[in-house]
Amino acid sequence: MADDASSNQRSPPKKHSIDTNDNNISRSSRSSVDSQRPKPPPPPPPPPTPMTTTSGIPPPENARRYEDLSRRNLNRLSYRRCFCYFFVALLVLVTLAAVLVGIFFLVFRPHKPMFSVSGVSIAGMNLTSSTSLISPLIKINLRAKDVNTFLGLIYGGGSAVEIFYDAVKLGDGELTPFYQPADKVTETVTTLRGTVIELASSTREDLKEAENKGKVPFDLRVKAPFKFKVSAVTMWRMVVTVDCKVTVDKLTLSATVITENCVTEDIAVL
């Protein structure tokens, strides 16, 4: 027993062996974990240094920018001034025009012209033929009266004259341009033409019946542009609209006007 105890005391302590493979695996796993970790953000850039020289004088780049800004401000101011001048000039012109119009109406007191129909001749409306197509040729003797004492009237182009029977347009034409002195009556002849107009059977029968009775009614509409003239001064352009109710005894060249009534509507400024 003593020998066994002495042998146990003399035997050296056992050493634990380290596995190198396990160490390598742990190192590789650590490196992979480290690579997966997010990288810290880069440091912020340093603040910009002011573009000034050591002597306190701005560099040439700043001087150029200042000049550019100054020029832009001057351009804006000039544009605003031009706009203000234009607006003021326009306001002055509008005011002067309104004053002139007021003076014109107060001094001369213009009146709208009066119209009447003095004669009608009709061709191309043969209602006894077998065809329902007609091509009317109607001449209207139109009298225009200038009731103004000091204002003449200048009738220009762009007028329109139309004639209807029961809302069916039979022809149209234009007034011949003319000048009418103050307080005068002018008679003009206007030719109205209609091309290949097909009448409904009811309208055709109504026309026949009206002609047999000796009373064929027509609607005549006139739209005439004109200008007032005072001595050598011509005023702005206006337009007058006239609505006439005309009744004739027959549909021939020798037709006679039985009744007529023309109403001049208000004058409109063009």
UniProtKB/TrEMBL annotation:
<feature type="compositionally biased region" description="Pro residues">
    <location>
        <begin position="38"/>
        <end position="50"/>
    </location>
</feature>
<feature type="compositionally biased region" description="Low complexity">
    <location>
        <begin position="20"/>
        <end position="35"/>
    </location>
</feature>
<feature type="compositionally biased region" description="Polar residues">
    <location>
        <begin position="1"/>
        <end position="11"/>
    </location>
</feature>
<protein>
    <recommendedName>
        <fullName>Late embryogenesis abundant protein LEA-2 subgroup domain-containing protein</fullName>
    </recommendedName>
</protein>
<feature type="transmembrane region" description="Helical">
    <location>
        <begin position="82"/>
        <end position="108"/>
    </location>
</feature>
<keyword id="KW-0472">Membrane</keyword>
<keyword id="KW-0812">Transmembrane</keyword>
<dbReference type="GO" id="GO:0016020">
    <property type="term" value="C:membrane"/>
</dbReference>
<feature type="region of interest" description="Disordered">
    <location>
        <begin position="1"/>
        <end position="65"/>
    </location>
</feature>
<keyword id="KW-1133">Transmembrane helix</keyword>
<dbReference type="InterPro" id="IPR044839">
    <property type="entry name" value="NDR1-like"/>
</dbReference>
